[in-house]
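To illustrate this point, what follows is a protein record of this kind.

___
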Amino acid sequence: MIRHDEIREAVSTIITAIGEDPLREGLVDTPRRVADVYEEFCSGIGQDPSEVLATSYEEAHHEAVILRSVSFVSLCEHHFLPFFGTAHMGYLPKGRVIGVSKLARALDILCRRPQLQERLTRQLADCIFDAVEPVAVTVFLSAEHTCMTLRGIKSSGSKLVTSSARGEPSAKEELKRELYAIIGEGLT
């Protein structure tokens, strides 16, 4: 549960600490707006993404199921700045499939908490693997981190690409190759 009053007070303190007046016209509503942003960015805390993946369907499909180019935004836990990009995921079912929107919803829940991209990638792969019990699952994430592009090295346009795979070793590698071939330059 987000404690808006504490966030508003903390933001007012930050505004004062940088030498500004929190009562200045342009800043007077900033603490409330920042609290609203954190409520949205952190709405996945306490939610279990596996709950949205709980409904799967018997289907005699045993070839790759791939969802590509799902946009996401998360909050870097090191600097509390956003990172954003695209997710690509696929699995080789053993006769059970899951609704495509459920995959995107699980990603959204995992994104809406202070996060590391590496952990996010692993958590999404684990959720899909546990929910669908496929032969294999692979997840690729490609994201721009504003903590790196707007400050520090200021390397605009650079992206971190992470992957995570679960399942039978040969099937996992086959799926990884197939997913990469399909998304190709979509990782950039």
Notes: Residues 44 and 112 are 4 Å apart (CA to CA). The mean pLDDT is 94. Helices lie at 4-17, 30-41, 49-52, 100-111, 117-132, 146-149, 169-183.
